Amino acid sequence: MRAAVCRELGGPENVVVLDVPTPAPGPDEVLVRVRCAAVNFPDVLMVSGGYQVPVPVPFTPGSELAGVVESVGERVTALRPGDAVYGVTMTGAFSELAAVPAAALHRLPPGVDFESGAAFGVVYATAYHSLRSVAELRPDDWLCVLGAAGGVGLAVVDVGVALGAGVVAVASSPEKLELCRSRGARATIDYAAEDLRVRLREVTEGGADVVIDPVGGPAAEQALRGTRWGGRFVTVGFASGEIPASRSTSSS
Ligand SMILES: NC(=O)c1ccc[n+]([C@@H]2O[C@H](COP(=O)([O-])OP(=O)(O)OC[C@H]3O[C@@H](n4cnc5c(N)ncnc54)[C@H](OP(=O)(O)O)[C@@H]3O)[C@@H](O)[C@H]2O)c1
Q1: For the residues 105-128, what does the mean pLDDT come to?
Q2: Does the global pTM surpass 0.70?
């Protein structure tokens, strides 16, 4: 079978398609014929060697997939060959066949296609967990989303709108902000062109209740200063490559 293999840590050019042996599922694993696999930011970090959990080379990247069960390990009872499934696995999705722990897979609901299933687990689970378990978002909250047109950002916009919050989408271009508006964002801020702290306080009439930040860098501090009393700020990632540091400043 064919698989994308990272033979050396570095740029995406280090990932090459090779013929490799078909994996045999372990007792608690399922062999999935992969129909779709999504590319996420952490996949790029893993290939570059920058992920928080080091992955030894060679390895097949790809952390989420959707496909059809080919065979199951001897202890697996919940899934059968022919079942359509989706799920998250740290590596191995960029492959024709992937051996995945059964516990990491779910049946694809009727009417959901393989593309949607493969792109659901990482960003939507992150969005839901950030908003419900961590920020405890309420329907009348103002929710500010940084990097709102990115993978995590757009999922947070979708889930925030579904939970009834007033979503303020923050991104770096009119095209990205238009995309967020089309998904239900109530207000938008272009942080490449506008003062994020000032505009956030204006559109929310006093400050955001919740900020979700997958970007980091200078925007993080601006958004923090644009929250209202009792606001919740959730750090999800540092796509900008810069972890915000506290600095002494006299501005509020
Ligand atoms: N904690 C978790 O469970 C979890 C799960 C998934 C991802 N993450 C992390 O969340 C972060 C974002 O992931 P993602 O999938 O949303 O990534 P993404 O789709 O690439 O989006 C990242 C956004 O960040 C902004 N950005 C600013 N500077 C950037 C730079 N130098 N390079 C790339 N993007 C930059 C961009 O928006 P603008 O152009 O509008 O600024 C971009 O749309 C990553 O750090 C990832 O590791 C965490």
Answers
A1: 97
A2: yes
